[in-house]
Amino acid sequence: MASNKKYWKSVEELNENSSIVETLRNNEFVEPIPVDQFLGDKESLSSSSTTRRDFLKYVGFSTAAASLAACEGPVVKSIPYVVQPEEIIPGVADYYATTMADGFDFANILIKTREGRPIKVENNNLEGAKTGANARVHASVLSLYDSLRLKQPKIAGKDATWADVNTKVKASLEDAKAKGGNVVVLTNTMASPSTDALISSLVAKYPTTKHVVYDAVSESNALDAFQAVYGVRALANYDFSKADVIVSVGADFLGDWQGGGFDAGYAQGRIPKNGMMSKHIQIEANMSLAGANADVRIPMTVAQQKQALADLYYAVVNGAQPKNAKIAKAAKQLKDAKNKGVVVTGLDDVNAQLVVLAINNALQSVAFNPSDAILTRKGDAKAVAQLVADMKAGKVHTLIMNGVNPAYTLANSKDFVAALKSVKLSVAFSMKEDETSSLTNIAAAAPHYLESWGDVAITRSNYSIMQPTIRPLFNTKQFQEALLAWTDNTVTYYDFLKSFSVTSLAGKSWNQAVHDGFVASLASPLTVVSADYASAASALAKAKSSNFDLVLYSKVGMGDGQQANNPWLQEFPDPITRVSWDNYVTMSKADAEANGFKNWNVANGGLNGSYATIKVGNTTLENVPVIIQPGQAKGTLGLAFGYGKKLGLKEEMQVGVNAYALYANLNSNQSATITVADGEHEFACVQLQKTLMGRGDIIKETTLEVFNTKDAKVWNSVPMVSLDHKPTAATEVDLWDSFDRSVGHHFNLSIDLNACTGCGACVIACHAENNVPVVGKSEIRRSRDMHWLRIDRYYSSQDTFAGDVVVKEEASGLLDSIDTFSGMEDPSENPQVAFQPVMCQHCNHAPCETVCPVAATSHGREGQNHMAYNRCVGTRYCANNCPYKVRRFNWFLYNKNSEFDYHMNDDLGRMVINPDVNVRSRGVMEKCSMCIQMTQAVKLKAKREGRPVGKDEFQTACSAACSSGAMKFGDINDSESEVAKLVESDRMYHLLEHIGTKPNVMYHVKVRNDK
């Protein structure tokens, strides 16, 4: 029945002459739609041919408009494509192959883009790719959207045009040529053949030009040794999957040693197959990732490491018997392994590097591959020192820099800064107004690698292409474009690169090379030049220590410090210390007690520590926080690069101390003194739990001998519970009726503790995929970190975890158990270490689901535990009831909040947000979703292509990021999938299996090679 009534929402609407009503109407619609008259007039309604769909459109549109006007909500204008790009389909991700090359990290990767925005890094899994993106590579996509980037070039601190820059530089080059003045091009290792060709063109046009390569974290001694033996300035390559015995002397080859990327090959040999696995012996000062994963770890000072390396040389090459029993055993195992043995070293000493090359050649090691040498380190410490001396002497007319920040990274940076004033023209290509570019005459705004074309020779067999995945966000120019302009070459860099690359494509077309991201070929053998190995070994044998041995290193999260303004990396907990937002000096407990240094916990759970003053030569570094590190060799100290930056960073990211100040002569091994300073430091440490305590089914491990000789029930026992007063396997008892999950998909995640190295790439990948917020140091201290995925690190209280089990089992009675467990909080001097990634276990019988009063958390039929954020009222009952402690509560609104001034507080930073995952608000619980948006995307893609989902096509962010293969995700209802086979493994177990939660995440028992 039609009605002539008019309905109103406000008394103001009854006033026909109201300006307010008229204004609201005009703001909402260009031309008012007379919906009320139309629907309220019987004649017009009955005579119309309006369909039901149109009727609902009218009603819905008018209601939505009125609601919007009443709420005074913001109007967001969307501009549609005039011509939609062919490659962009709204809502569908595109992937582009490219190569990251920032002078420190190099990797073949894929970039996920949404509507033209790069939002995530993935591994390039094509055969032959030099991949294995680490945490920094995964985080690099956020650095693209850094709001503090240089947005245009500057001359003398004022905005300028590129024409002005080119005019000024060319004039200086011509002046230098006319007067015979020296021109120096100072770059990091770009490993770019086309750029080298362009620099050669610059040298040809201006003959007084010299190219100096400077790496902030130098491998100069290793390069010198390799060049002496093989005639090429490069680094030896290694394939640890081919090694049965690995002896590492001070080389963190699971970290950043020689550019990293060795973890995938290493992990292959660490998973027991046919009763065999590789043996890993680590000799080192600092507790490193490699040391934490070793079967045998021998803490030594730098001098002792040099002596040990000399002993290994004499044993392997000359057949001598080392006096040190542990070194003698290692040498015997090396010789027994024959060509399946390999030795590596990270000692910053030419003699040490020469001796290692000699040992590997003597063993004829198949894991040692000098022919496919690594080309991503080319720095020359002597040339850099000479440059500073020449600048001080006024011998440099024009200095052109690219990708370097010597005013921050040089130990003698004060000399460099002072000498810079005597250079007539200084130019710095940089993404930031950093310590160097802020002092140069010209600060040339450089693009991010995701905005750039380029080529990279990662190894002698790998030629990679870098392609842009987004148009430049700012008025930036590549260094190569400037070189072309300065040599009067009118072609674009893209055209130059395309024609230059022809000789390196090995038969591939340009389009195919760009599509794949790289070209793989065979590396020609290198000829060995004889070297004086005996003298090198003799020099090592005479090494002595004085004071403390300071070992400078790069942290997994921060690297050389280029991405110090990246909040994902600042908040990333260090795998060993579990500290974020800081660097610190590490020392052994014995040295700390002897010198008055302390760490202690405070009431809110935070970790505090003493400050130290460190002196190397005439340089003093003050107020350095101290961490007492189990496993640190007595008489040694560790300190990480990459912190202490001040310029080009938001205030929140200006943390830590500058270790480069102690990096004299670009040598990472220094003799230092250390004294206690006043005050106490507050750390942001996410894990204070140091032992397994009584929870034996969290980390399960065994030895290779037991694994090979005993039944699985012995080393992977099923927990027993009481049922009708009879011991019964926990896996056979249920409090609930089980749901039939044999139909459709049933997703499981498998984590192999033998393959997990603790590298943390999965943590950053999860950050990127799931819009995980950054909360800052003070919130981390309150245990409010928001990481959906954490990597727990466990230390043994005894020398081994097996020793811990004996101690626990021998405890009797309540008081004895309390004393025993309290004592086990103190780790061994040289503990065994275990890493365990933990996320929501997606329990089939989830304790969180039974206590949620509003059913915000519930179970899907495919195995995932879902969260309905809009339904959550923040009671946190689920977090209290979760035995795995994997739920995260939004204490604050982290998005668009000036109190949390990280990437989510500015429009540019929010460009990295994944539109497939909503950004959670304050007061809700969040946790791992097993990347349900990724599984749904795979199903929709297969459906659209009219095919079944492929084997192992399903992925999560963490499993896709895991280059070591520790994480495998898939459908266990697909009998051909890898994860379905892993479910049946004898090594498989679930966390806290005795409580009957039936998780969909499984782990595999860690096996240590005790042979």
Automatic annotation (TrEMBL):
Gene3D superfamilies listed in its UniProt record: 3.30.70.20, 3.40.50.740, Formate dehydrogenase/DMSO reductase
InterPro entries listed in its UniProt record: 4Fe4S_Fe-S-bd (IPR017896), TAT_var_transloc_signal_dom (IPR030948)
SUPFAM superfamilies noted in UniProt: 4Fe-4S ferredoxins, Formate dehydrogenase/DMSO reductase, domains 1-3
Highest taxon, organism lineage: Bacteria
Protein name stated in the entry: Quinol:cytochrome c oxidoreductase iron-sulfur protein
Organism: Flavobacterium cucumis
Residues in 4Fe-4S ferredoxin-type domain copies: 747-777, 831-862, 863-892
